Amino acid sequence: MGILSFLIWTPIVAGCVLLAFSGPRYEPLARWGALFAAIVDFILSLVMYGRFRNEEAGMQMVEKVSWIPSINTNYHLGVDGISLWLVLLNTFVTILVVIACWRNIEHRLNQFMGSVLVLSGFLIGTFLALDALLFYVFFEVTLVPMYIIIGIWGGPRKIYSAFKFFLYTFMGSLFMMVAMAYLYTAAGGSFDIATWQNLPLSATAQTALLFAFTAAFGVKLPMWPLHTWLPDVHVEAPTGGSAVLAAIMLKLGGYGFLRLALPIAPDAAHRWAWLMISLSLIAIIYIGLVAIVQLDMKKLVAYSSVAHMGYVTLGMYVFSAEGISGAVLQMIAHGLVSPAMFLCVGVLYDRVHSRQIADYGGVVNVMPRFTALAFLFAFGNFGVPATAGFVGEWTVIIAAVKANLWVGLAAGTSLILAAAYTLWMMQRVYLGPVANDKVRELRDINWRETLFLGIFALAVLVMGVYPKPITRSMDASVAKLTQHLATSKLQ
Q1: CA angle 475-481-482, nearest 5°?
Q2: Of 32, 132, 281, 319, which residue is most buried, by most CB within 10 angstroms?
């Protein structure tokens, strides 16, 4: 078993073990066991990064074992410059989510920590799978731990939100299942993703496949108008669940586009690029306007996620190296900023038990250290220079301007909207005089909260100031993908 298998199965096994230790007396074991497993997995991801060779465009550290010989499917893993950083992001965020939920989960702590670890392993498996059936299995099974997290530890409407989350994403994946069955037959009985990427297909077949994959990945991303499940789920999910959902699970959609949809149907992707770019701009601009009128902090950040994911699809569908690099950078930046903002909302909710903006005001007067960190994440949310958000958004905007000036201009206007709805919330929650007695009684963040928010802040600044390690690792893979998308596969 190689390093990639250890990355996948370490958190899954650890999570399953934690499920066996139920009850208050095992809560310290659940906390420290989950933290230990998450740290070990992060160290394994750093070992993977150390072994990665930046100059190689193909898959590295490949593992391949026959899985189901009767249908010619394999346990086939590999990592390239695109999946590398998504795996690193996952293992990094998992540690911070475990720390953030250290005292916040009041019942069934072992089940919560176990679900978080199992989900982390399934997500890594999706990013590393090179066999389409293996990809589908990991992609779908991520629904189970997240469904449990929302359904057990969520808010008052948790059952409805968990059902909506599962139904939306599962129904979208049914189209992908049919597309995979067609490709398996067309490829002569092979589930190998690389074989599918090089398979000649007619224009009609490519179009059908593109929209089938878009149904699955567009819901997960989420694209407008397939996004309606996300705000409800974020509002009801526990803080740790929202952090994982925003940081990692949404990236499954973007990764699916880059690994399956675009390489398998490049001609159809070019033909329908106008539609995808239009939907991206609607997400960026219209959802930004929707975010401005939100009264719930969590719902505002959720709509912000939809708007920011519009940059991901926009970057992919301009079909340039800058655009695809910008899409990946935006996924990573959003994976740092958005969970941090959800955790900030969680810090306030733990104290006041309200997410309504109107219930706050003047928090800076009683929580200055926390306010400083919250404003840093807010600046990253609308792309202030030297933050992670700036790197991804501006790379996509530059690529869009090169492709079409008007598209780039429309995308750029969203920066104003993002600043408007983010600062609108920050001003009313944090600035001004103390609004009421509940705010006056607040105490600044403790060492644990300072730790996980401080690490997030450091990561946001480091990526904003020095993104070169990320771009250097993925340049060869992005160049290879760009070249592939420029080559016709028409049969």
Answers
A1: 85
A2: 132
Residue in this structure with the two tokens 């250097």, named with its chain if needed: 472
Q: How far apart are CA 210 and CA 489, in angstroms?
A: 13
Can you tell me the distance from the alpha carbon of 20 to that of 380, in angstroms, rounded to the nearest whole number? 40
Tokens 């409407």 identify what position?
A: 157
187 phi, psi to nearest 5 deg: -85, 10
Map residue 293 onto helix, strand or coil. coil
Q: Which two tokens stand for residue 135?
A: 């990809």
The helix or strand, by DSSP H or E, that contains position 64, with its residue range, turns out to be strand 60-68
The dihedral region occupied by 383, where left means phi > 0, alpha psi between -120 and 50, and beta the remainder, is left
Angle separating helix axes 297-316 and 321-352, nearest 10 degrees: 170
Residues β-bridged to residue 131 = 192
Q: If we measure between CA atoms, which residue out of 288, 461, 471, 285 comes closest to residue 385?
A: 461
Binned at pLDDT 50, 70 and 90, residue 404 comes out as confident
Specify the residue for token string 């340039």.
320
Could you tell me the sign of the dihedral formed by the alpha carbons of 12, 13, 16, 21, in that order? negative
Q: Which amino acid, 7? A: L
Exposure string of 152-185, with b = 16+ CB inside 10 Å and e = fewer, is bbbeeebeebbebbbebbeebbebbeebbeebbe
Q: Is the pLDDT of residue 110 over 90?
A: no
Q: Phi first, then psi: what are they for 63, rounded to 5°?
A: -125, 135
Distance CA 357, CA 350 (A): 15
Helix extents (H) in 187-296: 193-197, 203-220, 229-236, 239-244, 251-256, 262-264, 266-271, 273-292
Contact indicator for 251, 197 with CB cutoff of 8 Å: no
Q: DSSP alpha helices (H): ranges in 317-404?
A: 321-352, 368-381, 388-403
Check whether 232 has a pLDDT greater than 80.
no
The amino acid at residue 227 is H
